[in-house]
Amino acid sequence: MGANYHRLPVEIQNFYLMLSTYLQILSDSQVLPTLDDFAERINQEHQKCLDTPQTSLIHARNAGEWLLHVQAQLSPEHWQVWFNEHFTFSPQTAAMYMQIAKKMPGVNPGVFSSAIDSNPNPSKTLVFPVKPILPDSQPQNLTNEVKTLSPKSPQIEPQNLVPKPTVETRHDTSLSGFEMILTGESPTLKNSPIPEKPEVLESPVTRITINPKESIIDVEVTPINPPEPAPIEPQKPAKKTAELIKLMIPGVVVPKARPRVTSNGTYLPPRYRAWRNRAEVEIYRQISEQNITHKFPLRKAAIVIRLLGNHRTNSDIDNLAGACLDALTLNGAGVLIDDRLSCLPQLSVEFDPDSKQTGVYIEIEPL
After folding, report:
1. Residue of 258, 275, 344, 269 lying closest to 311 (CA atoms)
2. What's 137's DSSP letter?
3. Residue 101: is it exposed, middle or buried by C-beta count within 10 angstroms (0-12/13-18/19+)?
4. 308 with 358: CB under 8 angstroms?
5. By the 8 A CB rule, do 358 and 250 touch?
6. Can you tell me the distance from the alpha carbon of 108 to that of 293, in angstroms, rounded to the nearest whole number?
7. Measuring CA to CA, which residue among 260, 266, 345, 253 is closest to residue 306?
8. Over the stretch 310-351, which tens digit does the pLDDT of each residue have?
9. Which residues of the chain form CATH 3.30.1330.70?
10. In the record, which residues are listed under signal peptide (predicted)?
11. What is the pLDDT of residue 332?
12. What's the pLDDT tens digit per position in 85-123?
């Protein structure tokens, strides 16, 4: 065709060019996603969030970002109708996904660096969570921002001592020539009135001898050195208390379960896996809302675990505490680097059955 192209009539050449251009436009054009496509992807991410606890935060963020995108395009009435038609999860779950999508770019990158998207087909995903998209309101260098959040304690300078006035004496050949001069200004002496007839007072350290036959005045003054003031030590700055991290996970804690080994592989029980997924999402949400200056994961910390409300009293306490610790380590939310004895020298577990709220309260003190 290329060799005989120029031999064809002009009309056929023009028709061939128009046809090739039209086919090129059709091949280059891409169909924009519809609301049904967004709903299908959000449902897929919600299901992955329940099935894969290790990467649940990434899937929750993707679902929240698409929910925010659709919510911005629709009115509140159309948004409610569209949500009720396409989703089975509650509006509270959708609000949590959208909250994670808003807060996730602002967290220290070291907190959840172990979470990697496990989707084998990234072409179906609109957002790649390997490198989160930073909003315009957030600075690009998050590490420098975290470093500037820990100000140094100001040094307290010692207070300057008030200089005391020095006394000078002058000798003269007449009585009127003897005077005492204060070199420093004293407001009490400067403003006090001068008496007309000064009284003569005897002092044990000053002896004045007047010879009536001679006009020479012999004055002998024994100086008294003022006691040296005690050195004033600068006040030591108060010891800064460690910043506590407080978390509250509502609901009944599911004890840590042993992995089930089958012919198809090893897996965790669905009930424990669902609780781990919910606990990790709740821990991440609360940490992102707090202004925490610590760098995660923490290498050493003291932890207090309080079980509040109605829990299974026949459960082993080590399994209940183990479930909470697994949700905090790198395999979970990434707050603590590990639950070994070297990383967790202090651990306290308490149970309060009379509490009105059921859940687990976790208090973390970095060491």
Report:
1. 275
2. T
3. buried
4. yes
5. yes
6. 9
7. 253
8. 888 888 888 899 999 989 988 888 888 888 888 899 999 999
9. 245-366
10. none
11. 83
12. 999 888 888 998 898 888 875 333 333 333 333 333 433
Q: Could you tell me where the DSSP H helices lie in 184-292?
A: 187-191, 270-289
Half-sphere exposure of 18 (CA within 13 A, CB side): 6
Where does the pLDDT of residue 133 fall: very low under 50, low under 70, confident under 90, or very high at 90 and above? very low
DSSP secondary structure letters along 170-182: E--SSGGG-EEEE
Any idea of the CA torsion for 108, 109, 114, 115, to the nearest 10 degrees? 90
Using the predicted structure, report yes or no on whether residue 357 has a pLDDT greater than 70: yes
Q: For 284-298, what is each residue's pLDDT tens digit?
A: 888 888 888 888 888
Please choose, from the candidates 85, 102, 93, the residue with its C-alpha nearest in 3D space to the C-alpha of residue 35: 85
Q: What's the first-to-final CA gap in the chain, in angstroms?
A: 79
User: Are 53 and 270 in contact, with CB atoms under 8 Å apart?
Assistant: no
Residue 320: which residues within 8 A CB-CB, separation 6 or more? 253, 255, 256, 305, 307, 311, 349
Judge if pTM exceeds 0.90. Answer: no
From residue 303, alpha-carbon distances to 288, 325, 333 in Å are: 19, 9, 15
Write down the residue that tokens 């967790």 correspond to.
344
Query: Which tokens is 147 given?
Result: 């470093």
Residue 335 Cα to chain centre, angstroms:
12
Superfamily of domain 245-366: Holliday junction resolvase RusA (3.30.1330.70)
